[in-house]
From TrEMBL, chains A, B:
Pfam families: MRM3-like_sub_bind, SpoU_methylase
One GO cellular component, as annotated: cytoplasm
Protein's UniProt keywords contain Transferase: yes
Database matches in InterPro entries: Alpha/beta_knot_MTases (IPR029028), MRM3-like_sub_bind (IPR053888), Ribosomal_eL30-like_sf (IPR029064), rRNA_Methyltransferase (IPR051259), SpoU_MeTrfase (IPR001537), SpoU_subst-bd (IPR013123), tRNA_m1G_MTases_N (IPR029026)
RNA 2-O ribose methyltransferase substrate binding domain residues: 31-100
Glycoprotein recorded as keyword: no
Sample GO molecular function, one term: RNA binding
Protein name: RNA methyltransferase
Gene Ontology biological process: methylation; RNA processing
Signal peptide: none
Amino acid sequence: MKYIQSLQNPQVKQWKKLLTKKERDRSGTFLVEGFHLVEEALKQKEQVLEIIVSEKIGIPPSLDAGETPIFMVTEEISNVLAETETTQGIYAVCRQPNVNVGLDDAKTFLLIDAVQDPGNLGTMIRTADAAGIDAVIVGKGSVDIYNSKVLRSAQGSHFHLPIRRGDLHEWTSILKEKNIPVYGTALEGARAYTDISNNDTFALIVGNEGSGVNKDLLDNTTENLYIPIYGKSESLNVAVATGILLYYLKKPI
Amino acid sequence: MKYIQSLQNPQVKQWKKLLTKKERDRSGTFLVEGFHLVEEALKQKEQVLEIIVSEKIGIPPSLDAGETPIFMVTEEISNVLAETETTQGIYAVCRQPNVNVGLDDAKTFLLIDAVQDPGNLGTMIRTADAAGIDAVIVGKGSVDIYNSKVLRSAQGSHFHLPIRRGDLHEWTSILKEKNIPVYGTALEGARAYTDISNNDTFALIVGNEGSGVNKDLLDNTTENLYIPIYGKSESLNVAVATGILLYYLKKPI
């Protein structure tokens, strides 16, 4: 175990850079914060490069880090890395997974178009995981999948299923060629979701909080669905809508 | 229209106090922020006591305030009232609705036990509205229903259906006496929600983000339900779970 006390330490500077998408992309790594996420990451040890622990909390006795290097740091350094107000003082630097693994066999997909709120994106990833969806494809205009708030809201689901960035136009074509029905979500020119029966294989496209799924995408889907509004609200939150649709479309195991 | 320039103005001090639950309860009023919520409030003019507009934005031409008094204030005063980082500079002081109206005829209920995140509570209220639920009862230990972030996440649904605080034990007894089935949500000792058929009348209890619905409550329900987890996530977000269950249990109109 190494002990780092200086904010000027090059390792600290590198960790700090991981708070930016640019450096996460360049290095192919990302930083998770908190016990739960560090534990989830350590379930596959090869994906964890380094563990960082604040000297204020010390190494938790239950931490099963295997051969992973552990760095003890001052509270000051820990606070520089923290993205929560009351940090638990434990972090892991993780390798971005090879997102092509498992994609060839995937039968159910969630395609996410330009969802900007990190809490929404993380909750949608968590929901796709819970519903047993095989893969999540995140299109342009969405918040970064390794943003700290996305990671936190997803509660570890980043380590459970392939999540990758991709061009949703291309994915729609690829999936349709494979005879996987692609359902868009729209308020107009769409069928009630309850008209569709559940299925072993499908892709669902959900979209931006304000403007919904891009029109060009909707023009190329197999079918577009809407969720009826029985009361007076104008719409549903996108993560809630995703949950209703995925749990309806997915064939119970 | 009155013009207020001083932060020391008693009216400004009173508005500022509405940022606290204590003063909202004492005065029976609450403050909403932003065009959308002010417009939703003005759909029933008698519930709006005052409108506050920052001189920086001026009165929007589309604003249909009727006889409601409008106060123009400095940007400084507006910023004191703002709970968002980029405020739209428009507010309304609203009367807390008489929450007993409509309750006698209500057939579908959402009961919320100790949900602490204001974004979750607001999204759940919005979801109940969308699903056409007749009333929302919020139990002890939950964040205040008139908290600014709850209001924002609910996107106006506070003005669409009765939302009231209440003792969920008492409500469970009352509803069961009326032959309304009360469904709890639990991870253990529960049936898959898909075993239940949809119904014209029901109450659903959902609970705290970490610990779920209180055990004493679960012991007194008609039946407890769970949502199967098909993947590797441990649970669903409570607002997403609420959406899945309400849209499943609710009989389409």
